[in-house]
Design goal:
By secondary structure, the chain is an alpha+beta fold. Helices cover about 25% and strands about 35% of the residues. The chain has helices spanning about 5-30, 35-85, 270-275; strands at about 90-100, 110-120, 125-135, 145-155, 165-170, 180-190, 200-210, 220-225, 230-240, 245-250, 260, 280-285, 285-290, 300-310.
Length: about 300
């Protein structure tokens, strides 16, 4: 606002001068002989003073509104900073890679590769990663949707049976339960054991997603959640079958390949979607999304479809 003040003052002065000249010319062109010179002078003074006051009030009102906008922006920024300070930042994901391999049978394999940095003087024994997996439409699967295949933490192999902990299954509210898919919510427990001088750890987790992509031939999505600050993220999504490839899938809801959701209530962040739309590419039958600092606490949906390779 302060940078505009000199320009605004010039506009005010020019407006006053213009009005003054027009007033004088108007009076001169009239029957000036019938008007006393003193009266003419006072008329000009009152006209210019009145217009100056009017323009000053407009300028003052504009300045007050600008101050209100700036004040509101400052309050919003302070709220965002307060929100960020409340989020745990005891670990940072320096790098994260998600590799999805989708099968025509509806199953998929997901491989996580993390470089985790300890960002505190306190001991960090474990890191917990939430995971969401949809069951078959209209019914709940008889077995867990997530099965751990392999775990490597700095080259060591902990017991994979202790890694995945299913929490509960959520059935969306719908008039016809045969038309919806229940969602299994679970937790991946990663025993990082960062103590003493150990400030980083490399993690690889490979898991089987049972029936999670059973509609891949029609249109599916991979769901990626960011519960921790992530400096660099890379997604690779491809087909397990050599006879099929994945292609981007734009459904009728958002018309974009990557959806950015603020929370589990599916509040869409359109601005973030437009940003991430510039960060993905399609290469040799593989979808690749690479970005820096995806939004903390967001869920991202990457939409795809399996199609048969052309002969």
């Amino acid at each position: 606002m302060f940078k505009k003040t000199p320009t605004q003052l010039i506009y005010v002065l020019m407006s006053n001068l213009f009005v003054f000249i027009i007033t004088i010319l108007g009076l001169v062109l009239s029957d000036i002989k019938q008007i006393d010179v003193h009266i003419l002078f006072y008329i000009c003074i009152f006209v210019v003073a009145g217009l100056s006051l009017f323009l000053f009030v407009i300028y003052l009102s504009t300045s007050v509104n600008e101050l209100k906008i700036i004040s509101q922006d400052i309050r919003n920024n302070n709220k965002q900073l307060s929100s960020l300070s409340a989020i745990s930042n005891y670990v940072i994901f320096e790098s994260r890679t998600d590799i999805f391999e989708i099968g025509t049978d509806g199953n998929g394999e997901l491989t996580w590769r993390f470089k985790i940095i300890r960002n505190t003087q306190q001991v960090v024994n474990e890191v917990n990663m939430p995971i969401f997996a949809e069951h078959l439409r209209g019914r709940t699967a008889q077995k867990k949707a997530v099965e751990i295949i392999e775990v490597l933490i700095d080259g060591e192999k902990p017991n994979p049976m202790d890694i995945y902990i299913p929490q509960f299954i959520r059935m969306p509210i719908h008039s016809n339960t045969k038309e919806v898919r229940s969602v299994e919510l679970g937790n991946i427990r990663i025993p990082v054991n960062m103590t003493g001088s150990k400030t980083s750890v490399s993690v690889k987790i490979k898991m089987l997603l049972n029936g999670v992509f059973n509609e891949a031939l029609k249109g599916e999505f991979a769901l990626i959640d960011f519960p921790y600050l992530t400096e660099h993220f890379l997604l690779k999504l491809s087909s397990k079958s050599p006879d099929y490839i994945v292609i981007p899938f734009d459904d009728q809801t958002s018309k974009t390949v990557i959806e950015a959701l603020r929370d589990n209530n599916e509040n869409v962040d359109v601005d973030e979607m437009l940003i991430q739309a510039e960060n993905w590419k399609y290469l040799d039958g593989q979808m690749i999304w690479e970005t820096r600092y995806p939004k903390l606490g967001y869920n991202y949906r990457v939409k795809f479809r399996l199609v048969k390779k052309e002969a």
